[in-house]
Amino acid sequence: MTPSPVAASTTAEPVDAPASDTTPPPVRVRELEAEVDALRRQLAEANSRAVQHSPSGDDDFVELDDARLLQQVGIYHYHHPLENAELYRERLAELREQVKELVKAGKAIQAADRFSYNNSLAAGRRMTADFSKLMLRAYNAEADNCVRSLRAGALAAATKRLETAAATIARLGKMMEMRVSPEYHALRVTELELTADYRFKQQEEREAGREERERLREERKAEQELAAQREKLDKERAHYLNTLAALRAQGTASEVADIERRLAEIDAAIEQNDFRAANIRAGYVYVISNVGAFGKHVVKIGMTRRLEPLDRIRELGGASVPFPFDVHALYFSDDAVTLENDLHNAFALRRLNHANPRREFFFATPREVRDVLAEKVGNLLEYAANPEAEQYYQSLSRWPEGARGEPANG
User: Fold this and answer.
1) How far is residue 162 from each of residues 24, 57, 185, 196, 305, measured CA to CA in Å?
2) Are strands 179-180 and 361-363 parallel, antiparallel or unpaired?
3) Are residues 154 and 265 in the same domain?
4) Among the listed ranges 5-9, 263-267, 405-409, which one has the minimum average pLDDT value?
């Protein structure tokens, strides 16, 4: 005899309901096993299709290529904006409690409550309850796998995988009018969104932390250099004061004038040093490029408070790039922070990295930056428009055939 649904769809019994003491008939066991195997095959096929190219208009296709997905989604936008990663973690914990409550209340899977088997409503309910457990387990396995394997930019693919799983369960459970409840599915989708936001916020905070530590190291170096310079100037000043006192006692007028002039220079240097130490916005704005690493049409625009700005530029051209940077401009400003921001804003649409605005590389030539800088500060006494790139050009002739063309963006 064949099972038949009798009444409309309602909420199924809780999936944790105790099993009946009655031993299920062999036919029923075989049917359940066949349904479970079919469900697993459907889910496996949906996942395997994701590694192939999508035919036009194929709604079942799930894109899993991270690189392609990242290009498609562009800049990440938070689905549930929160202030920090800790708030996301707390929100996820609350949501997972809601998921558990729905499962305990038997509201995760919906099915017909008057499904009969062998003309028995009791047997039909037992069969529905057992099959609901199997379906929910399959759905949760897919949902948990989506959460575990979620990558930046892959939220749409993960959501589609979950929707495919829900649709497959509805198709396989059609006889019992069985499906994942919309409320439960919405919670699991929200869990995916929060997880994606949480992981991106974690990445953002780690990156911000690294850059803040780098900024603090740079600040400490600048402070140490300024303090050492002040100590040196104080010693020189004390030396010249002692010399001046001795010369005045001897009455040597010409030498006294020279010492007084030197003291005036030292006093001016001390004043400038103290100003830079007190004014954290004062510093050098630099424009540099690296033809061998980035090509002729990429520059870096930054600032440093270091006493010797070239020290900072030499650090930037360390082991992380194949060639040292060429310096096009070093401009001291009492408000270098504002000047740097003005230059960044002028080339904002030409950033290399639009996901992280703290990366200060831009698609621009040194001449273009010179023109904008001149508009901001007036005449520039020194500006090297053409990079020397000495090591790059010395190395170019020894590069393998096929690698001697212009570097990227060159």
Assistant:
1) 31, 19, 8, 15, 52
2) unpaired
3) no
4) 5-9
Q: Give the Cα separation of 327 and 387 in Å (integer).
A: 8
Per-residue model confidence as pLDDT tens digits over 319-357: 788 999 999 988 988 888 899 999 999 999 999 988 788
**pLDDT confidence bin for 4, thresholds 50/70/90:** very low
Q: How many CB atoms lie within 10 A of CB 147?
A: 18
Among the candidates 229, 263, 278, a domain finishes at 278
Beta carbons of 145 and 135 less than 8 angstroms apart: no
- Which among 259, 269, 317, 329 is positioned nearest to 292, based on CA atoms? 317
Total number of residues shown for the chain: 410
CA distance 236 to 170: 86
One domain, residues 163 and 28: yes
Q: Is the pLDDT of residue 165 over 70?
A: yes
Q: What range does the domain containing 315 cover?
A: 283-396
Query: Does residue 239 sit in the same domain as residue 158?
Result: no
> What local confidence, expressed as pLDDT, does residue 195 receive?
92
Q: Give residues with Cβ within 8 angstroms of 212, minimum separation 6.
A: none
Task: Give the count of domains, the chain.
Answer: 3
